[in-house]
Amino acid sequence: MFKNKKTDSLNERPGLVVINKPTSIVSEQFRTVRTNIQFSMVDEKLQSLVVTSAGPSSGKSTVSANLAVTFASEENRVLLVDADLRKPTVHKTFNIKNNEGLTKVLTDKLTNIDEVIYRSSIEGLFLMTSGAIPPNPAELLSSKRMNTIIEEMKEEFDMIIFDMPPVLAVTDAQVMASKVDGLLFVIPKGEVSKEQVLKSKELLENVQANILGAILNKVEKSEKNYYYYGD
Predict the structure, then answer these.
(1) CATH class of the 3-7+17-217 domain in this structure
(2) What is the layout of strands, in order, in the sheet containing 211-217?
């Protein structure tokens, strides 16, 4: 049985635009991203997804959270996993405790995933926080135990979204990109160089990551393209 955790009113969570302003342009763009993902792999089922970026403060955690809510709105069972074992944020976004989470199931084989998964107040959305910050995140994520956990997640959920650290900072996103069905790359407009994006793409291609596409973030509201401001 998944944990039931009462959270603060989601209307008070500024990062969750798809909850706060469901009819906004930004919310509509998240629905467009969801549709594009659903049609990106016609012949194969896409069930697990990594969201990452080149560098920090890109908004990738905000994108991950809103995308998870958007998928859950279609009567899917969605699990948002905070796989950023260095600077986790999911517990802050949804105002839940981060005592136990992904690190716990990775280091303790007797712990089942349902023991560290929270049922959110959003229908169909479940959360797994990072848990304690370990000294060896990349080693834990690259382990066979992580492979087993992903398979267990797939048995329970229609979509699993992993919020990952930036590609150029650490190897964590590369490690996970080789284990999941697809990857989304978040690019904050004007805050990352073309060289950084290309280097990130090269690193991800080296592990044969299935890069589904990129989300241009932090675009000015006056522009017609997708925009969003987040952590």
Answers:
(1) alpha beta
(2) 3-4, 118-119, 125-128, 78-82, 159-163, 48-53, 182-188, 211-217
